[in-house]
Amino acid sequence: MRLGVLDVGSNTVHLLVVDAHRGAHPWPAHSEKAVLRLAEQLGPDGALPPAGADALVEAVGAARASATAFEVDELLAFATSAVRDAANSAEVLARVQETTGVRLEVLSGADEARMTFLAVRRWFGWSAGRLLVLDIGGGSLEIAAGVDEDPDVAASLPLGAGRLTRDRLAVDPQSAAPPGPQAVDELREYVDSLLEPVAERMAEVGWERAVATSKTFRTLARLAGAAPSGAGIRTRRRLTRAGLRQVLGFIRHIAPAQLAELEGVSAGRAHQLLAGAVVAESVMRRLGVDSLEICPWALREGVILDRLDRLTPE
C-alpha cells in the first residue's frame, strides 16, 4: 500500500510518502517539507498567533494536495510538541480540519518517544540488545530505553532546540553575535535540573547500546566529523561526547548567521544549533553516555511501522 505520513512538528511540516506492506521495508516515494518553526512562534500567552495558524493551514493543505497527487491509500497525520503545547491548540486543530479536511492526531510526548524507539529497534534489530534512544526536536527532548519494541521507560521533556532558543537564549536568526556566556551557562543549569529525575529513572533501566535520532543530532555528528548525508543512510555515523564538547566549544562563539555557512548546517535551523548542542551535551553527560550511534529512522518511520503492524493479514 502507499502511505502518506504528515508530521506537523515544532520546526517543519513534513510529508513523507512510502510504499510498504506488513513485514516489509517502507520505501520512500516522495518527501516534501515546509519550514514553519511553530515552537518559536508561540506567543507570551502560549498561543499560536494568527500568522502561524495561517501558515500551518496552508502547509497542511499543500501536503494534502501532494498526497492526493501521489495517490496515497491512507494519510497518517499527526502533530507534536508545538501544537500540543499551544494554548489555543483545540482552535488551531479545528481550523486545520475545517479548511483542509485533515484531522491531525496530537501525539503525547510519551507516544513520540515510543514510536521513535520502535523505529530505532527495527533499524538495528534484536542483536542491538537493550537500547537507549535520544531525540531532540524543536519543542521537546524524548528519551526511551528498553529491550523490546515497546520501551520500558519513555519520557518527554520541554527541552527542544527551538523552544530553548526562544525562551532561554532569545537568539535572532540574523544576529551578528552569539549569546553571551552567562546565558549559555544558565541554559545548561536549567537543562541539567530538568534531566536529573529522568536520568535517575534511566539509570535503573540500563542499556547496552545508545542511539540518537533527529536533525539536531545528525548535524552535531556531522560537525564532529561524521560522514555527510551524501554517503547514504546506511553509512555508520557516531557522535562521541568528546567530539560534541569540541563542537559546543566552537559554535558557542559563532553568530547564527555564520553557523548557517558551515557544511552540514541547515540555514533554517542554524540559530537553534547551540541550544540543541547544550541539550545533547547535558543528556550525554548526565546519562554517562560516551558515544551515540546515529539512526536515520525516527518518529515518522515509527508511525509507519506501527500502522503496518496493525494491518490485518490477507
Structural write-up:
The protein has 12 helices and 11 strands. The protein has 314 residues and is α/β, with parallel strands linked by helices. Strand 2 (12-19) and strand 3 (27-35) form a beta hairpin. Helix 5 crosses helix 12 (299-309), helix 7 runs parallel beside helix 11 (273-287) and helix 9 packs antiparallel against helix 11. The radius of gyration is 19 Å and the shape is globular.
Keywords for this structure?
globular; alpha/beta; 19% strand; five-stranded mixed beta sheet; 314 residues
Please describe the topology of this protein.
Blueprint: E1 2-8, E2 12-19, E3 27-35, H1 38-41, H2 50-69, E4 74-79, H3 81-85, H4 89-100, E5 105-106, H5 109-124, E6 131-136, E7 141-146, E8 153-157, H6 161-169, H7 181-205, E9 209-213, H8 215-223, E10 238-240, H9 241-251, H10 256-259, H11 273-287, E11 291-294, H12 299-309
Parallel strand pairs: 1-4, 4-5, 6-9, 9-11
Antiparallel strand pairs: 1-2, 2-3, 6-7, 7-8, 10-11
